[in-house]
Amino acid sequence: MKIEGTHVFNGPREDVWEMFYDPNVLASALPGAQKMEMVNEDEFKFDMNVRVGPVSGAFSGELQLDNVVKPDSLTLKGGGKGAPGFLNGVGNIKFKEQEDGTTLMEYEGEVNIGGALASVGQRMIDSVAKSMIRTGFETLDKALAARLATKETGAESVEFKAPTEAQFAKEVAKDMVKMENWSAETKLILYIVPVIAVIILLAVILNSCGA
User: Fold this and answer.
1) For the chain, which domains are there?
2) Which stretches within 75-183 are classed as H helix?
3) Whether 189 contacts 117, CB under 8 Å
4) Which end of the chain, C or N, has fewer beta carbons within 10 A?
5) Pairing assessment for the beta strands 55-69 and 73-82 based on DSSP bridges
6) At what angle do helices 165-174 and 184-208 cross, to 10 degrees?
């Protein structure tokens, strides 16, 4: 599965880079992320518990940082496994400072899946992945705005409200056909695949700041 796209963050490149070094930021953008641990400056481990209605599934994995050029670009290799299957992938991220003070992020990634995950249609996975990536970035926009406000006012911190798992899933469902008739297994698979894909893409940014 190939994922690629762009996103504009309303802040300087250095601030965007620093923001993603905070594991709490990534966790807030990924409902179900229970743990994001830095093993060393080039490696992270994560645990997730993804829930869709009465269905749940646990995933564990690790992320490795490579080719870091702070604050311009980097590459991340990562993977995860759980009851529904396994996956691994590589993501490349580039940050470009814009004349208006914003930061353009260009990302591309290749994710390989196996087990029950591989039985889901590519079109379905692509649709959900795009929706979840968009929603995740919207949360990161709020996190960046809060950080910039803290920096400007000199306050210790400015909190932002991250979406709950239910709100996150609801936003994803808006971009899909009705899911009521899908099996519980299909719903879970469709939720987990893009979540891990987002981890691979966004954690690239998070890990980059360790260089």
Assistant:
1) 2-208 (3.30.530.20)
2) 122-153, 165-174
3) yes
4) C
5) antiparallel
6) 110
E-strand ranges in 17-148 read 33-40, 43-52, 55-69, 73-82, 85-97, 103-114
Mean pLDDT of the chain: 71
Q: Which helix (H) or strand (E) holds 18?
A: helix 13-19
Please state, in angstroms and rounded to a whole number, the distance separating the CA atoms of residues 67 and 163: 32
Cα→Cα distances 155→23, 92, 147, 159, Å: 21, 34, 10, 11
93 φ/ψ angles, rounded to the nearest 5 degrees:
-130, 140
Helix (H, G, I), strand (E, B) or coil at 68: strand
Whether 79 contacts 117, CB under 8 Å: no
The encoded tokens of residue 188 equal 């879970």
pLDDT per residue as tens digits for the range 137-160: 888 888 888 888 888 777 665 566
Contact indicator for 49, 84 with CB cutoff of 8 Å: no
pTM above 0.90, yes or no: no
